[in-house]
């Protein structure tokens, strides 16, 4: 076992959706800091370009911008086309873009439910499907390609907030991850679902480790899943919540 290379992702090609802010930015930053070649995508071309420039300046890896609206199938095809013009393969796809909507059950809009489910589930499948040729290009039993889907603790437990579409979509995403894993494993493409909870300082008291998640928590988990150390993980839901989902609720 070579410990020096066990968590190495240097020069790997990574696509992170929603990489311009929040969790996506944390993930992209972690990969760039580890020497990977990262592409970020989100609706705002301006934000994407700014973040890509800043991360490349930080190094030692690089970051490039491929903006697009993940709600739209045509934008997904455009993203893949632009990525294919720059790279002949893709090592890691991080499906991070997502939407949320809260409303009382009696007034929850049908269009809102459809929008959330479309981005959080349908388009994850659409993008993963579109990326398959690039993901398969250099995948091997020794070094499989990875697909990391960013889920939510709300897909594992019933949330207090009236976010019906979000909770349902994340539960669906977890199962979609397992389903795809069973099909894509033989192609040396392994699937993981990263489950996160970020509700602010007010929830610290309910977290057994008594703190909220930090950028290095999410980056570290993704680096593990994307490196040799995590190459045997497939179809798993890795919960990053400080133990919130197992703490007693009185």
Automatic annotation (TrEMBL):
Name of this protein: NAD(P)-binding protein
InterPro entries according to UniProt: NAD(P)-bd_dom_sf, Sc_DH/Rdtase_CS, SDR_fam, Sec_Metab_Biosynth_SDR
SUPFAM superfamilies with a match to the protein in the record: NAD(P)-binding Rossmann-fold domains (SSF51735)
Organism: Hesseltinella vesiculosa
Keyword Oxidoreductase applies: yes
UniProt-listed Pfam families: adh_short (PF00106)
Family recorded in the similarity comment: Belongs to the short-chain dehydrogenases/reductases (SDR) family.
Swiss-Prot/TrEMBL keywords: NADP, Oxidoreductase
One MF term in the entry's GO annotations: oxidoreductase activity
Gene3D superfamilies (UniProt xref): NAD(P)-binding Rossmann-like Domain
């Amino acid at each position: 076992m070579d410990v020096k290379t066990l968590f190495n992702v240097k020069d790997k090609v990574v696509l992170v959706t929603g990489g311009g802010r929040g969790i996506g930015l944390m993930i992209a930053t972690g990969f760039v800091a580890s020497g990977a070649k990262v592409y970020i995508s989100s609706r705002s071309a301006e934000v994407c370009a700014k973040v890509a420039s800043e991360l490349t300046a930080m190094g030692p890896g690089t970051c490039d911008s491929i903006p697009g609206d993940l709600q739209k199938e045509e934008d997904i095809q455009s993203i893949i086309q632009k990525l294919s013009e720059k790279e002949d393969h893709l090592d890691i796809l991080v499906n991070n873009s997502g939407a949320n909507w809260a409303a009382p059950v009696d007034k929850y809009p049908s269009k809102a439910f459809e929008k959330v489910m479309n981005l959080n589930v349908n388009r994850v499948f659409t993008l993963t499907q579109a990326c398959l040729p690039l993901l398969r290009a250099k995948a091997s039993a020794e070094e499989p390609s990875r697909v990391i889907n960013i889920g939510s603790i709300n897909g594992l437990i019933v949330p207090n907030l009236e976010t019906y579409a979000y909770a349902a979509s994340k539960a669906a995403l977890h199962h979609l991850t397992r389903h795809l894993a069973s099909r894509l494993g033989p192609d040396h493409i392994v699937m993981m679902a990263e489950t996160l909870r970020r509700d602010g300082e007010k929830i610290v008291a309910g977290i057994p480790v008594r703190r909220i998640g930090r950028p290095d928590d999410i980056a570290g988990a993704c680096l593990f899943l994307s490196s040799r150390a995590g190459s045997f993980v497939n179809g798993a839901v890795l919960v990053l919540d400080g133990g919130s989902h197992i703490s007693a609720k009185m």
